[in-house]
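Predict both folds.
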Amino acid sequence: MGATLRAHPTLWLLRLLWLVMPWSAGAAAADALGACSQTSARILSAELWAAWALVLTATFVRRPWALTVVRIATPASVGLAIGSVVAAAAWDANLPAQRAATAIVGAVVTTAIALLPETGNSFVDGLSYGNERRMLLRTPFLLAVAPIPIVWVAVVAGITAPLVLWAIEQWIWAAVATVTGFTSAVLGFRSLHQLSRRWVVFVPNGFVLHDRMATREPFLLRRANIASLGLAPADIDLGADDLADISGNALGPVLLVTLDGQVEVVPRTTGTAQVMAVSRVLFSPTRPGEMLSEAARRRIPR
């Protein structure tokens, strides 16, 4: 089946939810903008419409960069909804309670759908062709705890701060924020985008583990050399010489592939690259059960 036919229903739901966003979070933002000057309100409104159109377009482009855009923008819509409700209340804008609740709930649900593994897999699988299939790897635990939220804030602030400052005619601060914000946004986007490029790729003769945050090069595990694939035992010795652990201590089930023979892995460590010849590999896909089902369909031993 072609990759274009494998879009998960959650992706279509995400498109629908974002399509109606102007009537939920957008309506709340419009009420909050009523306290601004006419010129500032028009500029800010135009910026919001442009951002909405960009993200809507990204939902129809099944590529890793589009996933990064969506997963940055949808949580930002929660901040927009909450901020609009708070601002409207502070400025006595008479925002109806039902509209405020719809704005916040709509943004939260949209963000939850965007962060689902099935949605992410649909985006990255758009790169697949022929008999390939891509599935994302789970985010390493230490990155999810602090660095990712901090970088996300830097990206969102780096984009929004200059736009707001230009709109309210704070020229000097806007110029400074444009330079610093653009730099932080670009660097932050590149960092977050690495999370959208960590995946398992099923190919006709096995599967490839592609995680440049854990290894210097992707490596192929050939079906003919795979002795077994399944859930890793809880008592596995992580210090064993024949084991490569690229799971990143991610929360959730971890899979273990055991080989008849060895594969060369180059871990991403400080200093000189060191080649490891291992017969077992630990990794953590976002949907272990779905991956095992796909492996069984491709006659990979379990």
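Second protein follows, with its predicted structure tokens after the sequence.
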Amino acid sequence: MSNRRSFLKTSLLGTSLMLPSGILKAGEALTFPKKSQKQKPLILSTWEHGMPANDMAWEVLMQSGNLVDAVEEGVKVTELDMDNLSVGLQGLPDREGIATLDASIMKGDGSCGTVAFVRQVRHPISLARRVMEETPHVMLAGEGARQFAIAQGFPMEEEILSPKAEEMYKEWKVESKYKPIINIENHDTIGMIGIGADGKMAGSCTTSGLAFKMHGRVGDSPIIGAGLYVDDEVGAATATGLGESIIRICGSFLIVELMRQGRTPQEACEEAVKRLVAKNNKDIKDIQAGFLAINKDGESGAYAVHPGFNFARHNQQEKVLVDSKSWF
């Protein structure tokens, strides 16, 4: 968890030299690429765990050229990361001690699939893709999603908590108090968005949701337009943070529509945060939310409510972890 609080100040200037670690030199003002800088293909994802996820996505994209495969396989890395307590079956459970998962995947042509409140499925992002490709629906939830997973040949995992999650759940039960802490690993979804060399776009989002949530709670991640939205004609956006605050403003859809109206990705993310703050002003000191966006030209932007949100960026010139600017 401490790594999430230690953020690297980086520059995205095209003339900057890469360090062996893959992180740009510190101390530069954060800038975003201009239209004149070609940024296709490009993969972006939320948080520090986006770095290994991006590595996998980039490898898949370079080998197959399939962006949907790339954004699926990329976040699957995070779904298996035993050190991550906010994504995958190893994530922190709800107040009943059960890990429930949400995920979504979307293509720029409008095709999409999501699953919510899913149990015992190791890779909910793959199940979301099956919903997109094998059913007439967009979302399956709960027991219905689990039954669909079984019918599709997904193995059902044993329903036990990971050692870290078990330890933290036992500590939580002493007081059984529910209060999310911003920038701590209890709502740090991974959202990934990408654009291929051909200009086609796709995105994915997966999470185990808020730690110690009410049983049955679903956040923004599996809701198309809240946690993820992709449109080849305009751009793509994804969100992370307290899902309820993001759902209230249809955050990712809002950003894409603002870009449709002519805003840059950075301007659109900033406007989304402005609206989120206005809608959640009473509790805003305890709410973190961050947005990440790209447009069809390969420009990118990011913005958060509070300092602490960062994102991973991977293109042909660089792979880098970047601190987002914030409202406060």
